[in-house]
Specification:
By secondary structure, this protein is of the alpha/beta class. It has helices at about 10-20, 20-25, 30-40, 50-55, 60-70, 120-135, 205-215, 235-240, 245-255, 260, 265-285, 290-300, 305, and strands at about 80, 85, 95, 100-105, 110-115, 150-155, 170, 185-195. It folds into 2 domains: about 10-40 and about 240-305, no CATH class; about 50-240, no CATH class. Helix content is about 40%, strand content about 10%. Helix 1 packs across helix 11 and helix 11 (about 265-285) packs antiparallel against helix 12 (about 290-300). Mean pLDDT is about 85; it is low at about 260-265.
């Protein structure tokens, strides 16, 4: 194996994840090593990955408000997170599980999604998410006048077909002459297509263009570009890979291969997958006659648990 900052135990864990996927299992050993090292040792995590996006924006109000205030026309001064999975209305309803869901102090709902790969019927999916958040606002006896706006913001690493070429496509409910259906507008959908950024060397970037560059290229940066100044320091600090726990690094690594599946797993599912991965690695190391003490220190299992495998 090439010289790498990863320990043999860490590398074995990452390799076990890679080998779960047919399209990567067929790579040569050298190609697997390059892939693992590139993902697991980058200075910053890849923000287009589902786990990484939630890590930076799904648990840090300041990070999320910094992003929202450069995208939305209204200033956001306060947000509170909500569970990203909403209750079903009927038992056979399609689940609604969002990347990030929050609300403002006055009750406006904000859904933020990251889509790394094109998904069929994405526009319908985003409309369904937004409509779901409209539906949950009113209870028996409430006035329809109590409805608050819902914003759906989707960052995507691909292009959709449009009649114009711009960075952000903002959709509202309007009459064909342009008259708003309601004031304020109840549902706004923002499509932010990251590949549409075509910055030129030396060109000063707008805040939106900076975000597009950060979201696309975070894992490619060796350090924060000085041109961005201190305003985005919290985003770069939150995106550092080194402080992340070994357990969470495995979650991140797996999410890099399969965002769509991971986004629908519960915490219990993730715990089970982690346990199975650790057991798989321990078995492999044991088969290669690695000492029980080394296996224990690499996996966190006890010597007794390893002996029982």
């Amino acid at each position: 194996m090439k010289t790498t900052p990863l320990t043999p135990g860490q590398f074995a864990q990452y390799e076990a994840i890679v080998n779960e996927y047919d399209r990567y299992r067929k790579l040569s050993q050298e190609e697997k090593e390059d892939l693992i090292i590139r993902i697991a040792t980058s200075t910053y995590i890849n923000l287009m990955c589902d786990w990484a996006f939630k890590h930076v924006f799904g648990h840090n109000e300041k990070n999320l408000m910094l992003l929202l205030n450069d995208i939305l026309p209204e200033e956001i001064v306060h947000i509170e997170y909500e569970p990203n999975e909403i209750d079903l209305w009927k038992g056979d309803d399609r689940k609604v599980i969002m990347d990030v869901l929050c609300h403002t102090k006055d009750g406006r709902k904000i859904i933020v999604e990251m889509q790394r790969a094109d998904k069929e019927h994405l526009r319908n999916r985003l409309l369904y998410y937004g409509a779901s958040m409209i539906h949950t606002q009113l209870h028996s006896g409430d006035s329809y006048g109590n409805m608050m706006p819902v914003y759906v913001i989707c960052f995507m690493n691909f292009r959709l077909k449009h009649d114009t070429d711009k960075l952000i496509y903002h959709y509202l409910l309007r009459e064909e002459t342009g008259e708003s259906y309601s004031k304020p507008n109840i549902l706004d959908i923002y499509l932010c297509e990251l590949p549409r950024l075509a910055s030129k060397p030396g060109k000063s970037l707008t805040p939106v263009e900076v975000w597009f560059d950060i979201l696309q290229n975070m894992s490619n940066f060796a350090s924060k570009p000085e041109i961005y100044g201190k305003r985005y320091d919290p985003i770069f600090e939150s995106s550092l890979q080194s402080p992340i726990s070994d357990k969470d690094k495995l979650q991140y690594f797996r999410s890099m291969f399969d965002d769509d599946v991971r986004s629908y797993l519960t915490d219990e599912d993730r715990e089970e997958i982690y346990a199975k991965t650790v057991e798989m690695v321990a078995r492999k190391l044991k088969e290669n006659n690695i000492s029980l003490q080394i296996i224990a220190s690499s996996t966190g299992l006890s010597v007794e648990e390893i002996q029982a495998l």
